[in-house]
Design brief:
This protein is mainly alpha-helical and 450 residues long. It contains 18 helices and two strands. Helices cover 71% and strands 3% of the residues. Strands 1-2 form a two-stranded antiparallel sheet. The termini are far apart.
Length: 450
């Protein structure tokens, strides 16, 4: 058969491709999530300080739910739906990333993982202690978890603005640190920021999760199976139990299979076989495929799905939605704070506790713990890391937007304390992000000159 018949035709370009391709390029850039998050924060601040501020806050307080026989179910405000519903998608992605790192990423090798794990733990404990010292009692005491969190999207976004000037080892170190930090924040939320627990609903949720785990072990790879049980079972039951629903998302993520049905060698052999069969099928010269071609392409598609772990398929599919839809909406709903700030707000114990906890606590915790681990010879500096760029990473770790704002919504019911905490988060994150960029930029220049 003439091989020329099977030469690749030039891919046709349609108008929709020209419109969508710039969006795809933006989404694929590592720094894009941080940029969009920053824009969302600025928009929220503008809305909260504009003539439509009353409508902005009033919209977020609107309630809606489901009515059946004159009984309302899940009757929550829009802000509650965003924080407990949409954010569950974000935490599900966090869970997928955590499991991926533990199974086959930076956290799978104890020798490589010990340094970022220790740095993350130090970067959580010291900020909490600083907040404790400034807020030892009363309702304000509940905000100790706010400065513990690092915003991975913002921190990595700033780091990637520096481009190739930053060694890959530093990007890996900050990513691993931020992921462990996320795990710490999830544990803090689960253990300390839950309401009265309904054991019956909790047991129902855990039962659904057990079914998902059994399905994993039995070889179930259908993502719809995990979606239905995860949302209708685990998430709903946890929401009703009093344990924060986002914890259900993380736990559900850990039940998703991380292994493959076909390994790389088997997949290559299968593709060679399919391509050989495809060459034997005569084209029909029409826009649509023949039945044999359709069956063969579906066979290739099934084999490809079997060669990709469901965990990574889900993460790849959901991550853009979480980064470019969920987080910006969350920022729009939670970052709005009046900029009519008085001196007493800047000097309040909550504002200072959050700001100093993030800005000083993160740097002291991350840098101090890392140096201690190296000094005790329990770990080695990654290639390309030195004291100056370590301090730069510590400053970037003080960016605490998403997680810190989320914990603020759980820690306080008093609007004043929530506003004070947000002021502290913004101040520390902005100063930390700019300082971290400057320090890292100068450290790369000095390295290049030397």
């Amino acid at each position: 058969m003439d091989n020329a018949r099977f030469e690749e035709e030039k891919e046709k370009t349609y108008l929709i491709d020209m419109l969508v391709s710039p969006v795809h390029r933006f989404i694929q850039q590592e720094k894009s999530g941080g940029i969009l998050l920053g824009i969302s924060v600025i928009v929220a601040l503008i809305l909260a300080n504009s003539p439509v501020s009353e409508q902005y806050f009033g919209f977020l307080e609107q309630h809606f739910g489901f009515k059946f026989n004159d009984i309302m179910f899940f009757n929550f405000s829009i802000q509650h739906w965003i924080n407990d519903g949409l954010m569950a998608v974000f935490f599900f992605v966090v869970g997928l990333e955590l499991k991926g790192e533990i199974v086959g990423g930076e956290l799978s090798n104890p020798r490589k993982a010990i340094l970022p794990i220790a740095a993350a733990v130090g970067g959580m404990i010291v900020p909490a202690l600083i907040y404790f010292l400034l807020n030892p009692e009363g309702e304000v005491h509940q905000g100790w978890g706010i400065p513990m969190a690092t915003d991975i999207a913002f921190a990595l976004g700033v780091l990637y603005l520096l481009g190739d000037k930053i060694p890959l080892s530093l990007k890996v170190f900050l990513t691993a640190l931020a992921i462990v930090d996320d795990l710490g924040a999830v544990l803090v939320i689960a253990l300390f920021y839950t309401s009265n627990i309904s054991m019956l609903n909790l047991l129902i949720g855990l039962s659904f999760m057990a079914v998902m785990y059994i399905g994993n072990r039995a070889g179930v790879r259908n993502l719809l199976f995990y979606a239905i049980l995860g949302i209708a079972g685990v998430w709903t039951a946890f929401l009703l139990s009093g344990v924060h629903a986002t914890i259900a998302a993380v736990l559900a993520a850990f039940t998703i299979p991380a292994n493959v049905r076909i390994n790389e060698a088997g997949y290559i052999a299968k593709m060679r076989e399919c391509l050989g069969r495809l060459r034997e099928i005569l084209p029909n010269g029409k826009p649509i495929l023949t039945e044999d071609q359709v069956h063969l392409f579906y066979e290739i598609k099934t084999a490809t799905n079997f060669a990709i772990p469901p965990l990574q398929r889900l993460e790849h599919a959901i991550h853009p939605f979480a980064t470019f839809v969920v987080i910006p909406i969350f920022a729009l709903a939670n970052a709005g704070v009046s900029l009519d700030i008085h001196l007493d707000q800047l000097l309040s114990s909550v504002t200072l506790g959050v700001a100093l906890g993030l800005f000083l606590g993160k740097v002291i915790g991350v840098v101090g713990t890392t140096l201690l681990m190296v000094k005790l010879k329990l770990a080695l500096f990654p290639n390309g890391m030195n004291l100056k760029n370590l301090i730069g990473l510590g400053l970037l770790a003080s960016i605490g937007f998403t997680m810190s704002l989320f914990i603020t919504s759980l820690a306080f019911t008093n609007p004043k304390y929530m506003t004070d905490a947000k002021i502290g988060i913004f101040a520390a994150s902005i100063i930390g992000g700019i300082s971290g960029y400057i320090v890292l930029n100068k450290s790369t220049k000095s390295n290049n000159e030397s």
